[in-house]
Amino acid sequence: MSLSRAASLSPQGTLLSEVIPPSSWQKKQQNPPLPTGNRSRCPEQDVSICLLVALLQRILHAPAPGMDQESGAASAGSFISLNEHEQRYYSGLHSLCQADTSGQLSSGKVAELFKASQLPPEALHKVTEVCGAKRLGYFGTPQFYVALKLLAAAQSGLPIHLESVTAKAPCLPVDLPLPRFLGLKNEPEMRYSAVPPSIDSQGAQGGTAPGSLSWTPADRSAFRHLEANAEKKELWSPPRSPCGSPSRSPLTYRSYPYTKQRNGADSQIAYESKHSSQLEQHSSPSNYRTKATVEHPAMARASSSERLDQQGVVDYSDDDPWRITEEQLEYYTNQFKSLQPDLGALILGAIAKNFFTKSKLPIPELSHIWELSDVDRDGALTFSEFCTAFHLIVARKNGYPLPESLPPTLQPGFMQQEEDIPDTPEDRTIIERLQPSLATTKQDLKEESCKQDVGVKRVTTSQEKQTLQRAFPERPEPPHDLDPQMRTKTRPRSYSSTSFEDAMKKAEEPPTPPPRPQKTHSRASSLDLNKLFQQGAPGVKGGWLPPPPALPPRPTTSQVPHFISVSEKTPQNKVQQPNFADFSHFREEEESSVKPEEQGLRSRFGRSTEDLTNASKQDMIGVSHSQAPQKPVRRKYHPESQNLEAVPPPAMPFAPPAKPAQKLLSGQKRGIQMAIRKNKETNAVLTRLNSELQQQLKVVHQERVTLESQLELLRPVAST
Amino acid sequence: MAVCIAVIAKENYPLYIRSVPTQNELKFHYTVHTSLDVVEEKISAVGKSLGDQRELYLGLLYPTEDYKMFRKLHNSFTDVMCNPFHNPGDPIQSKAFDGIVSGMMVQTG
Hints:
The structure holds two protein chains of two kinds. By secondary structure, chain A is mostly helical. Chain A has 34 helices and two strands. A two-stranded antiparallel ribbon of chain A has the order 1-2. The radius of gyration of chain A is 47 Å and the shape is rod-shaped. The A-B interface holds A 349-350, 352-353, 363-364, 366-368, 370-371, 374, 377-379, 404, 469, 472-476, 492-493, 496-497, 499-500, 503-504, 507-508, 511 and B 9-11, 53-57, 71, 74-75, 78-79, 81-89, 93-96.
């Protein structure tokens, strides 16, 4: 008996292990039909084998019309390869759909099955179209099989296209999980496929296939991490193992045969498809790895693994980069909490700025992102605004150009819709999703209330915004902004305005007149020196005595009073000069020959300037001596006539490291600065004086001219 | 409606200026500059009495029908200022602001 059973099994085994392209089904038909009469002895196995047999019969006796039509089927010349599990499964489903003798499946049942796959209707239509049933008007077996394969592809997140399921396409991961259907009534195959036989090696191959064309190696590494986590998960929760790992089975290149099988078994729990789709979405827009995000998605998955709910809202067939997936949402939640523990509160603008600046995007782009996401224009980010902003940053980092306006999926209304729809289970799932991430019930309550607050806020923001904006231009502290929310909003405004004022004040400083830096700039002494040297007549240079090199290199404080005394002299000179000028003026009038007086004036003036320049030069010399401690060597060796060149260079390298005379130096610096200031004042005074004297000169000249003319007029009269 | 729109900073330099390009822009720029004198007049008159509760919004310098325009402009200006990434004193580079301003400008060919 056992032998016969074995014998009966083996042809089946061979049959099933072969790749069965539809075109070769006819061949199979030629094979002797399986021994139907083989009723095996052991009960469970007998039953299972019976079923298997039945299935195989169905497959093999698939009617010819189905075969003929399959050439015209949408397979378009290429055929699907089904591995044995898929074969089994599909045939089971095929039987479920009650194929009648003509081979057409009852459309009602097929529709039911498709609905049970939990795919959106557009996807289902597409599947129907692609598999050729639409064209034919009914589901034949090949169409059905193609359709099932497409469903599996769609549930794994691959696009619904023939190439996804044909063996020839390089992007096909051969180990697509079996399509999952919710709530199917007769699922004997489930039990059968629950037995985890060894997987063919195609699993490994399929994984390495670049089915993840759109995924970067970074994602793979991320997935590796996730796998590692998944392995851990597997250890502690075998019944929960369908959670993170199996969804990734088509995506990873390490095959997890057991989990896959169990995944197929637990087809009622269809959220893995969600996972895979989310993974795809997660990979494409959010490759944001700068902040150890690898762990976060893993954590997210760990928490999401506890969700055993129905399929979520996410329309993964869209592959919309602007849609926030759950993992991203959780990651953003965590980040928000790191900045502001209360999810319902606002993040202030400055805090958000520091945070987003870490993303190293250029400031204008960050500014644009802010504009897009701060919808209520309050200078602070609510949780949803924060998510929006974060998502935009992530997208931008992945190379997506910034939109001009908020995409609809990122608008706060969208998030709100998700939350506010009470009837759908999605709302509950979202709340439940966030529950494990928050991990405390208190926070759940808070969060729900926060969500409501946020919703309320949003509703009232438009009104408040108007009142706020009306209030702001008027500026008096708002009489009508008494709501606490308004206060929170005005607070950021006032904060920003104070910072604005501060910034303005800072901006005011640069336009102030330039003389200021010169006072502190000790190097300016060298410039002044140059100017003075140029101003001075050549005689001055000659008359400029080189300072005795015997002077001590460290000018004592006695030199400082020396400066002061010198500078005091100059005002005296100034005082003397007006008298001097007047005196000369009188003298000029007496003599009536102006030229020598002018010269005298000039010479006196020159002398006075000489005095001054000498005095100031003495200052400078003192200065240069005060510079001596920095460069005593140079002072000694360079003759002062070369001081012109010497002074600038030592002035330049003006930072004497580790000189003990630095205190003295600072004192001298101050002295020098004082001296410089005084010299400048005297300069100014002198120039004024100069101009006045010039004017007087002109006046006097005029008078002289008139006098001379009168004289000439009078002379002939006198002579005659 | 408007031929030229300018936002002048406190230090009397323009943060933002835009005019309809077909006209001779320099004239407009001069007008803007001279209007600053009017502003200064008003400020000096008001500032003494109120102290720190200064009215920043001096109202329209000349009664025109464009008060809505000014309000809109001012609103968008405050939005720009609210942006934490915007340094006050920088020229205004916000696209939203640009959009609003172009909406307010003359829509001739």
